[in-house]
Write a structure and sequence with these properties.
361 residues; alpha/beta; Collagenase (Catalytic Domain); six-stranded mixed β-sheet; 13 helices; binds zinc ion
């Protein structure tokens, strides 16, 4: 019933979390949960009721605070972009604020421990590189016919000087690049001088996926100043690897959200001025990114997943549902053209193409 969506990772990740893509401990955890029940219900395509979408700002005090005025401008621009690209007339409620820990109160050790086994432990440097290469290779090989195209896409962004020639060497090069960039994230310091990626799970992709399943998230949109960057043995992909495991947008199941899913916008990749982020954004030689345009476009992209269940029309530069490469938001937003990409113009850009399984809390 559930489509194994070949979302190429997480410029904006779709949390479909199919059983086929979960392995080992994560699968065991999933089996305990309704998401892996024998008869899965698929979320119905939302019927919009005109009510404002609820917005929360999830604040981590160890990161710079996101100014309320900036958030208001981003939401205003996102409203216009949703109308332009998605033909959706939306209202956003004024953001409320919650400490990030409140949103993660459901991610107890009992919830996290099995998910941790599916996560490459960068913080303690105890990850299994061979397993990561293997699962990455398996993920790439599902699309065997496209391997030469995948190599051509990845090559300019790989840190390795040796050109991959097949799926095995591509997997090795991707993992090396991913782990090196992840080490760069690990070296970033917070306002208090300690490593930004601390002992909390707030940077962990799988913790974000499970947080709204394990505690009520009565919102449709979450905006956070938290950096989400992590490495998993499951769902690894070219895009995820090249970006060093960073997510800038997520849309995942959330039983307390009005339409069954919630969209997360992580502002760190848009606003941070650290050298790694700037490099991945392509901000070089005085060039900078238009934060409002980039973040608002990404939020519109996520709302395309949430409200229309749209997929990723990869390679269609005019489409807001085509994810940005690396963190190159400027190039991405420059290429968007709503006239050239009306909703429904391709298989991945048709409402309902993504089938989210319904989950219970
Ligand atoms: Zn997406």
């Amino acid at each position: 019933m559930q489509q194994s969506h070949s979302t190429q990772g997480r410029p904006s990740a779709l949390a479909l979390v199919s059983r086929r893509r979960l392995t080992g401990a994560a699968l065991a955890f999933a089996m305990l949960n309704a998401c892996a029940a024998p008869r899965q219900r698929v979320l119905a395509l939302p019927v919009l009721d005109g009510q404002p979408l609820r917005v929360v700002y999830a604040h981590n005090p160890r990161f710079e605070r996101l100014p309320a005025a900036l958030m208001a401008v981003i939401l205003g621009r996102a409203q216009a972009l949703c109308k332009l690209h998605l033909r959706l007339e939306l209202q956003f409620a004024a953001p409320t604020e919650q400490p990030i820990a409140t949103l993660f109160r459901g991610v107890t050790p009992a919830v996290w421990n099995p998910l941790k086994e599916a996560t490459y432990d960068v913080k303690n440097n105890t990850g299994d590189r061979a397993l990561l290469v293997k699962t990455t290779r398996q993920s790439l090989a599902r699309n065997q016919s496209a391997i030469p195209a995948q190599i051509a896409f990845a090559q300019p962004y790989l840190l390795s000087k040796i050109l991959p020639t097949n799926v095995a060497s591509l997997s090795e090069a991707l993992v090396d690049t991913q782990l090196e960039r992840m080490r760069l994230w690990m070296a970033l310091k917070g306002l208090d001088g300690r490593a930004l990626l601390d002992e909390s799970v707030f940077n962990e992709y799988l913790a974000w996926i499970y947080a709204p399943r394990t505690a009520p998230w009565p919102y449709e949109i979450v905006i956070t100043n938290q950096l989400i960057a992590s490495v998993e043995y499951v769902e690894n992909s070219i895009h995820t690897a090249l970006r060093g495991g960073v997510s800038n947008g997520l849309t995942m199941q959330s039983p307390s959200s009005r339409y069954g899913t919630v969209s997360v916008l992580s502002m760190f990749p848009f606003t941070s001025q650290d050298a790694v982020t700037r490099l991945l954004r392509g901000d070089v030689q005085g060039q900078s990114t238009d934060v409002v345009e980039a973040a608002a476009s990404l939020l519109a992209h996520e709302l395309g997943h949430q409200l229309l269940h749209l997929g990723h029309p990869f390679g269609s530069a005019a489409c807001v549902m085509n994810p940005p490469q690396l963190l190159q938001f400027s190039a991405w937003t420059r290429g968007l053209n709503a006239m050239q990409c009306p909703v429904g113009n391709s298989a991945e850009n048709k409402p309902g193409v993504v089938r989210f399984s319904a989950v219970d809390q």
